[in-house]
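[job 0412] stage=complex_fold ligand=adenosine-5'-diphosphate status=START
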Amino acid sequence: MADVRLMQASKSFGTTEVLRDVNLEIADGEFIVFVGPSGCGKSTLLRVIAGLEELTRGEVSIGGRTVNDIAPADRGIAMVFQSYALYPHMSVRENLAFGLKLQRLPRAEIDAAVEAAAATLDIGHLLDRKPKQLSGGQRQRVAIGRAIVRKPQVFLFDEPLSNLDAALRVRMRYEFAGLHKTLGTTMIYVTHDQVEAMTLADRIVVLSAGRVEQVGTPAELYAHPDTIFVAGFIGSPK
Ligand code: ADP
Ligand code: MG
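[job 0412] stage=complex_fold status=DONE, emitting structure tokens
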């Protein structure tokens, strides 16, 4: 069980406040999508949840536990970046197993986790290839697989499809929806693509200059944007 809460979450770099009093309750199992223009703080917000950035003020909790002082590896989260960051010299199998080996899990357990993740993502036939022998979509699937093997309670995705071509982006969108259905895990997903947000999200969080502008279901935001900014981003064009 892992809900995610942000309470007055604020982050400054020097004198620049990049996140300002973000209050948000993300339910266990919810698919939440952060949208907003470039530079509005989406990645910083994910990094704060992941523990890769420390808050200047406020609190993050995961599964009811305050994690401000908990190391990223101990937060029960896994993050997938837009650049896949696969190890080029390792096979797909080794890439998937790498994090688990660091945790010193028994070999049989690692093999089982790798096989299960490969089956979920339909990459079982690619396990002995190197990343350079894969297409963009296959690489992205391996990157997601590396997150899945760790059985996180929360997945964080930072614009995971932005390096893919348009057709593949559409196909992968369905895969994310399927993955959420299969795993039932809390998913926090950043994109600047409105269609992606509308199709994937249980709720969308619209960010503007480090603040939450509006939170709601895709239908709510589309039909009843609170501000012109939200309307411009997701709202009905009328
Ligand atoms: P987004 O992902 O929405 O494009 P980011 O969270 O990456 O936005 O960045 C938000 C703002 O914070 C930007 O103005 C960016 O330049 C600034 N920023 C991000 N990381 C750092 C950092 N490590 N040091 C200084 N400024 C940063
Ligand atoms: Mg970003």
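Strands lie at 4-13, 16-26, 31-35, 57-62, 65-66, 77-80, 154-158, 186-190, 203-208, 211-216.
[job 0412] exit 0
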